[in-house]
């Protein structure tokens, strides 16, 4: 049986990024850049005004008193006028407009008073004030966006300013999802005695989307070897396969047998953790195959700990892991004696410190405890009873991802 850290290391050592594709800039937010984006032009491409005001020669200004200059033109953004500034003259100029060659300073409109065909400069700025120079932001040929990078709104705008209509990004990995078990019933169908709704598949589909993948729901698979083999044969055409249920030691747990028959190389089975001990992981022709437990909490906890970082690595993300914070327990917690236990907690910040409180029952079938939780407190083996006030590491289920693994 592997430790939590060993299981994560084994998984990530087996994962490779998918190939890239080129997509329109409008669909690129939150995608991961696959190669560097270089500037095709200077940004800004010409000298322009940073303010609404008046462009002039700084030498015409009086340092200790107001200066009156004749206004010879008005330049709006987008215009390309051929204007010469003689001594003692100025032009009214709008933000973003081209600054005439003879002008070396822009005085913002708040520091001026318009007087008919003239302008009175009330406050003399420094020479060169309020003028943006060509290439001040990015110079032609510079690497403007370095790969790999998860693209944000500002990155999209920068790429647009450089004239890139399409960007090279990693493809979103396609994840096949199988829910195994004769007890499962599809949504909308009535439940007979002993049956439950197929919630795991939809939970995992949503989690896959959150992690940047494309879920492919393959329905419910009955607890027979033939049905399980057929379902996995179809699923192995995806970039990743996730199944739930059928990986424990019951008479109807046939997933591992079916995977072996299909040539999946099992890298490990079982992790010393609670919940989620009967986790299996294997590889089939570079396709990672996760056999998650059937209990809904166990399944989702294993997803966050192992599948999510693997999926993000496949998608090219440079920061695949959930962040960890140090929090103080507000309630006492009894933990498992020999394995790492992940305790569902809600989090809040008070007086600059993170505080954690359990979300109630920690049973592996209590999915509401996951709905209420903000993080997974890491109770190492031998922790015993953790008293209120104990400081503990908590994996946040939201927040910016990080490069460092939580264990």
Top CATH class of the largest domain: Alpha Beta
Q: Write out the strand line-up for the largest beta sheet, numbering strands in chain order.
A: 8-5-7-6-10-9
Overall shape: elongated
Share of helix, binned: 10-25%
Round the Cα radius of gyration to an integer and report it.
31 Å
Can you describe what's shown?
This protein has 407 residues and is of the alpha+beta class. It has helices spanning 4-12, 153-161, 199-210, 225-235, 255-261, 296-314, 368-372, and strands at residues 20-24, 32-33, 37-38, 48-49, 53-56, 67-75, 89-93, 105-108, 112-115, 118-121, 131-132, 143-145, 149-150, 166-170, 174-180, 184-185, 196-197, 214-221, 240-244, 265-269, 273-274, 280-284, 287-292, 324-329, 333-334, 340-350, 353-358, 375-379, 385-386, 391-396. It has four domains: 4-18 and 172-314, 3-Layer(aba) Sandwich (Molybdenum Cofactor Biosythetic Enzyme, Chain A), CATH 3.40.980.10; 20-43 and 136-170, Molybdopterin biosynthesis moea protein, domain 2, CATH 3.90.105.10; 48-132, Molybdopterin biosynthesis moea protein, domain 3 (Molybdopterin biosynthesis moeA protein, domain 3); 324-396, Beta-clip. The chain has seven helices and 30 strands. The strands form nine sheets. A six-stranded mixed sheet has the order 8-5-7-6-10-9, with no helix packed on it. The model has no long low-confidence stretch (mean pLDDT 94). Helices cover 18% and strands 33% of the residues. The longest helix is centred in the last third of the chain and has 19 residues, at 296-314.
């Amino acid at each position: 049986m592997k430790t939590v850290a060993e299981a994560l290391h084994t998984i990530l050592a087996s994962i490779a990024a998918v190939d890239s594709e080129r997509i329109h800039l409008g669909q690129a937010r939150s995608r991961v850049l696959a190669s560097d984006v270089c500037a095709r032009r200077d940004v800004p491409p010409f000298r322009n005004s940073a303010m609404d005001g008046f462009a002039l020669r700084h030498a015409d200004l009086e340092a200790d008193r107001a200066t009156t200059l004749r206004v010879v033109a008005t330049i709006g953004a987008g215009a390309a006028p051929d204007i010469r500034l003689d001594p003692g003259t100025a032009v009214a100029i709008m933000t973003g407009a081209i600054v005439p060659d003879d002008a070396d300073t822009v005085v913002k409109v708040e520091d001026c008073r318009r007087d008919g065909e003239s302008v009175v400069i009330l406050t003399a700025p420094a020479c060169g004030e309020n003028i943006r120079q060509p290439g001040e932001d990015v110079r032609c040929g510079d690497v403007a966006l370095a790969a790999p990078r998860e693209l944000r709104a500002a990155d999209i705008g920068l790429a647009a300013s450089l004239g890139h209509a399409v960007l090279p990004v990693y493809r979103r990995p396609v994840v096949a999802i199988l829910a195994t078990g004769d007890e499962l019933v599809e949504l909308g169908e009535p439940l007979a005695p002993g049956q439950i709704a197929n919630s795991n598949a939809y939970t995992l589909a949503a989690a896959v989307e959150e992690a940047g993948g494309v879920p492919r729901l393959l329905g419910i698979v009955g607890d027979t070897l033939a049905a399980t083999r057929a379902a996995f044969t179809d699923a192995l055409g995806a970039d990743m396969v996730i199944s739930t249920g059928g990986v424990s030691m019951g008479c109807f747990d046939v997933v591992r047998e079916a995977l072996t028959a299909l040539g999946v190389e099992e890298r490990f089975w079982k992790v010393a953790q609670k919940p989620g001990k009967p986790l299996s992981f294997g590889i089939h022709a570079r396709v990672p195959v996760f056999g998650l437990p059937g209990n809904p909490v166990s399944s989702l906890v294993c997803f966050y700990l192992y599948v999510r970082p693997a999926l993000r690595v496949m998608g090219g993300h440079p920061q695949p892991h959930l962040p960890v914070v140090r929090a103080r327990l507000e309630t006492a917690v009894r933990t498992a004696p020999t394995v790492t236990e992940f305790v569902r907690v809600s989090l809040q910040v008070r007086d600059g410190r993170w505080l954690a409180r359990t979300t109630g029952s920690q049973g592996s079938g209590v999915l509401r405890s996951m709905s209420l939780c903000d993080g997974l407190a890491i109770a190492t083996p031998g922790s015993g009873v953790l008293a209120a006030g104990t400081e503990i590491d908590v994996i946040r289920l939201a927040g910016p991802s990080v490069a460092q693994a939580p264990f």
